[in-house]
């Protein structure tokens, strides 16, 4: 590191740390921990620890029940960030900054010692939706929808016609298919 860069770094590092501290303490003060990290263009960095979030439900749309051409032929395992689940338990609403991840899991087969059905195989990618007044003021309901190209560091915001339109028309509450998530319904006050 050149002397100049070192000086710059030493000057900036404490400021950055102070900034991080103030964000953390704000979050603690209001009792709200926020999840998801974003690029400057408000695109969600590929979430990593969502399997430790709150699992709210799963559905499967196998190819053989969809003329061999399901849009997503996998299981869809859905997780909500823990801070938003806490808020949901108090209010029955999706808070500003809600992050929901849908993970796709392939169908491994249709027979198991337990009987016939559809059984999960391998992880096969994710999709996500994020609600934010600040980041997505012009999106319906302030929800942005993300696809994650394989290996990408962050998601790509999708056109409203590609994702939001169907969610707006068919989902039971605020663009989320709560009709398919007994965990959410059971926790609703
Ligand atoms: C034709 C309708 C339709 C379209 C288009 C659609 N979805 Fe969905 N989506 C659903 C349904 C129905 C569910 C409920 C669970 C399931 O069946 O997978 C869902 C669930 C989800 C969930 C879990 C939270 C929730 O709202 O239930 C996410 C995240 C999601 N979709 C993201 C996307 C993204 C990103 C796109 C665009 C690339 C997209 N969806 C396009 C119908 C759609």
Automatic annotation (TrEMBL):
Residues 1-29 form the signal peptide. Keywords: Signal. Gene3D superfamilies: Cytochrome P460 (3.50.70.20). InterPro entries: Cytochrome_P460, Cytochrome_P460_sp. The keyword Repeat does not apply. Pfam families: Cytochrome_P460 (PF16694). Residues 47-178 form the Cytochrome P460 domain. It comes from the Bacteria. This is Cytochrome P460. It comes from Nitrosomonas marina. The lineage of its organism: Bacteria, Pseudomonadati, Pseudomonadota, Betaproteobacteria, Nitrosomonadales.
């Amino acid at each position: 590191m050149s002397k100049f860069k070192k000086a710059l770094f030493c000057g900036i590092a404490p400021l950055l740390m102070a900034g991080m501290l103030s964000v953390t303490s704000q979050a603690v003060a209001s009792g709200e921990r926020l999840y998801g990290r974003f690029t400057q263009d408000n695109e969600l960095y590929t979430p990593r620890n969502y399997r430790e979030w709150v699992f709210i439900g799963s559905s499967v749309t196998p190819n053989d029940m969809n003329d061999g051409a399901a849009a997503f032929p996998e299981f869809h395992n859905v997780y909500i960030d823990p801070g938003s689940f806490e808020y949901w338990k108090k209010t029955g609403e999706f808070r500003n900054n809600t992050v929901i991840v849908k993970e796709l899991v392939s169908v491994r087969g249709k027979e198991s010692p337990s009987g016939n059905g559809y059984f999960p195989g391998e992880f096969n990618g994710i999709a996500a939706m994020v609600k934010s007044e600040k980041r997505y003021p012009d999106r319906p309901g302030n929800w942005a929808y993300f696809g994650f190209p394989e290996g990408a560091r962050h998601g790509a915001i999708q056109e409203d016609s590609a994702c939001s339109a169907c969610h707006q028309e068919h989902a039971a509450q605020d663009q989320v298919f709560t009709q398919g998530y007994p965990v959410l319904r059971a926790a609703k006050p």
